[in-house]
């Protein structure tokens, strides 16, 4: 995935907002909450997203994926794909989608309704 494809994909989410900050990084938020970033790592595009507990442990073992600089060092579960051999485009899109869902699930029901964000879907365990 390149930066243009990343931005096009992130723009498809309800209430997604794009800002450029942190040294020309493309930052995507929903309801004021960060869900994805495309910045630079060693002169290449790097994609950062929030991860669930299991994904955080498993995916960081893949080549080209690491705990996100700054965010993960603060104890948050964020990963960064920094090399082409990390995730496939489909896997990266899935992780960005899950990041968006986790972030927006933390918004109040009222805020989600105001923004047109669907209510979170229960997981396989019914939660």
TrEMBL record:
Pfam families: YjbR. The keyword DNA-binding applies. SUPFAM superfamilies: YjbR-like. GO terms for molecular function: DNA binding. Keywords: DNA-binding. Gene3D superfamilies: 3.90.1150.30. This is MmcQ/YjbR family DNA-binding protein. It comes from Leisingera caerulea (Phaeobacter caeruleus).
């Amino acid at each position: 995935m390149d930066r243009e494809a990343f931005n096009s994909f992130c723009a498809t989410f309800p209430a997604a907002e794009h800002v450029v900050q942190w040294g020309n990084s493309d930052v995507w938020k929903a309801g004021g909450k960060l869900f994805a970033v495309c910045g630079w790592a060693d002169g290449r595009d790097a994609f950062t997203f929030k991860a669930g507990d299991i994904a955080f442990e498993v995916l960081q073992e893949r080549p080209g994926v690491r705990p996100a600089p700054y965010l993960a060092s603060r104890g948050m579960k964020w990963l960064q794909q920094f090399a082409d051999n990390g995730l496939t485009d489909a896997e990266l899109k899935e992780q960005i989608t899950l990041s968006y869902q986790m972030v927006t699930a933390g918004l109040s029901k009222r805020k989600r309704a105001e923004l047109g964000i669907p209510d979170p879907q229960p997981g396989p365990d019914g939660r």
